Amino acid sequence: MSTNIDNIKVNKRRWEIEECFRIMKTDFEARSVYVKRQDRILAHFMTCFIALIVYRYLEKKLDERYTVDQIISTLQEMDFMKYEGKGYQPVYTRTELTDALHEAFGFCTSKQIIPIKKMRNICSQTKKPKA
Questions:
Q1: What is the DSSP string of 45-81?
Q2: CB 49 within 8 A of CB 94
Q3: How far is CA 42 from the centre of its chain?
Q4: What's the predicted TM-score (pTM) here?
Q5: Is the Cβ–Cβ distance between 115 and 85 less than 8 Å?
Q6: What are phi and psi of 12, to 5 degrees?
Q7: CA dist 118 to 3, 4, 35, 86, 124, Å?
Q8: Do residues 102 and 109 touch, judged by C-beta distance below 8 A?
Q9: pLDDT tens sequence across 8-46
Q10: Is 102 helix (H, G, I), strand (E, B) or coil?
C-alpha cells in the first residue's frame, strides 16, 4: 500500500516539475540559449531559476487565485509616469489583481501621485529581509 502512496507522490512532483518547465518555456518565453562559457551558462540558468522562484512566491502570496498569464500581464502593465520634483503617477488600470498585490505586499500605488521619497521607501522595503 505504501508503494502506491509513494508512486502518487512521485507523480505529483513530476507534474510540478513539468509545469515549471512549461511556465519557463511558454509564459516566460525562455528558449534555448547557445552559450559555451561556464559562467554564461550558469548566469542564464540562475536568471531563469530566480524568475521562476519570484513567480512562485507571488503565486503563493496571492493564494493561487490567479493564473501565470494574469500575473505576468498585470505586472507588465503596472507602469508609472514620473513628474520631476513631484513623484510618480500610476498609469495603469486598477483591477482585482492589482488590489490583491497591494494587499499582499502592504502598500498601494494606484490611487494618487506617489512622492519620490515614498517610492524610494517602497523600493527599499522590497530589498529588506523580513524578520
A1: HHHHHHHHHHHHHHHHHTTT-S-HHHHHHHHHH--EE
A2: no
A3: 21
A4: 0.69
A5: no
A6: -65, -45
A7: 56, 55, 41, 11, 10
A8: yes
A9: 777 777 888 788 878 887 877 777 778 788 898 888 888
A10: helix
